[in-house]
Amino acid sequence: MQTTVKQVHQKELFGHPVGLYILFFTEMWERFSYYGMRAILVLYLITETTDRNPGLGWTNIEALALYGWYTMLVYVASIPGGIIADRLLGQKKAVIVGAVLLVIGHSILAIEQMWAFYTGLGFIISGVGMLKPNISTMVGGLYPKDDIRRDKGFTIFYIGINIGAFLSSLIVGYVGEVYGWHYGFGLAGICMLLGLLQFILGQKYLVGVGDFLGKSANVEDQEALKRPLNKIEKDRVIVLILSFLMVIVFFGAFEQAGGLMNIYASEKTNRMLMGWEVPASWFQSLNAFFIIALGALVANFWAGRKLKGKEASSLFKMIVGLMIMGTGFLFMTAATAQFESSGSSAMYWLVLAYMFHTVGELSLSPVSLSFVTKLAPAKYASLMMGLYFATTGFGNKLAGLLGESASHLGEYTVFTGIAIFCILFGLLIRVFLKKLKALTHGAEDNEKRIAH
């Protein structure tokens, strides 16, 4: 997909439109609020009501069940969020509405009442659904058609996401575990407010990006909304939907981070470091740290490979990313084996697992976002992005079910099974790569660096 709004000349910074950095910081604060809350959610649920920092006293199974439903609904809400943007508001206004809903939701969670807990989660689900697909679609709208910088732009954007995730896991995790869970929830709301304010103040760098096509004076925009999809557009939608299968599998495994791996870090990992116990929630920051550290390296690797004429299609990157991420679970297999033999599991297994998960994520997730903006028809731009995030939501639900199964299958079986399945599934998709690429009708064949 290429948004059909008239491209205006974008002021640049470090070789990319300045608007990219407005979206970068907005998403950074949104992810700070979301991942900060996610880092302590399961821990809050399973902490005993009699603890000095009381939680809800739920069982691990109950906590993982709610975690799975919540994280699924957060992303499934991207479908109505995308529809509302495509048909009524445009992406820009939808982002503002979503940010407001998130500020309300995180603020309500700071109230120590059960009604506030469920109400706050409801507002967050609605807010992410409005903001997430639309701000990502706006990133694609910053770049002209066939601009090779698009994948790198999404990687930069993705680094912003993970700066927020890295800081939130440390800051919100620490505040929640040490000072009180509800203080952590409230802090997340304050930071989302910062994201909303800076997005509003940065509108001059987003002129012509994310506007509602229905009110556009551009004839191409109006025609794109009215005419039915042609054969090429239909084929591209098909390959997008098929690629989403990899996304479901990837996040079904990857999202063990906030659930089963979070509990494993809390209950079965020796977290003592020079006489000090590392908070369990801090391990959630490893993924974000590695993304910040390795993001540019991975993006440059794939860009260099493409410029040399080697296989570097989005689908190929996604296949490789899925297999690398799956390989990371073999370190968790080693961790559980160590625990079963000695009664303790070393922290370095978690560090290695998160590092492999991150390299896999960098090859799949930002690439998938860019892929959607390349292939999705203009009239369904936000809807297709919403479907993408919905598939990540289904992956989150799958992650919760897999985490729950550890109660009777054991962590060793679950972690090993995830690794084997991801690797084999990636190899299976690789067999059909040529046929899937044909369905894109050369969407990536003529990418070039655009000179301004």
TrEMBL record:
A GO molecular function held by the record: peptide transmembrane transporter activity
TM stretches of this protein: 67-85, 94-111, 117-135, 156-175, 181-201, 237-254, 282-303, 315-335, 347-369, 381-400, 412-433
GO annotations of cellular component type: plasma membrane
Primary location: membrane
Entry's localization field: Cell membrane; Membrane
Domain (Major facilitator superfamily (MFS) profile): residue spans on this chain: 19-437
Pfam families: PTR2
Coiled-coil positions: none
Keyword Thylakoid part of the UniProt annotation: no
A GO biological process held by the record: oligopeptide transport
PROSITE patterns membership: MFS (PS50850), PTR2_1 (PS01022), PTR2_2 (PS01023)
Membrane topology: Multi-pass membrane protein
UniProt KW keywords: Cell membrane, Membrane, Peptide transport, Protein transport, Transmembrane, Transmembrane helix, Transport
InterPro entries recorded: Dipep/tripep_permease, MFS_dom, MFS_trans_sf, MFS_Transporters, POT_fam, PTR2_symporter_CS
UniProt xrefs under NCBIfam families: yjdL_sub1_fam
Family: Belongs to the major facilitator superfamily. Proton-dependent oligopeptide transporter (POT/PTR) (TC 2.A.17) family.
Protein name (record): POT family proton-dependent oligopeptide transporter
Organism field: Arenibacter echinorum
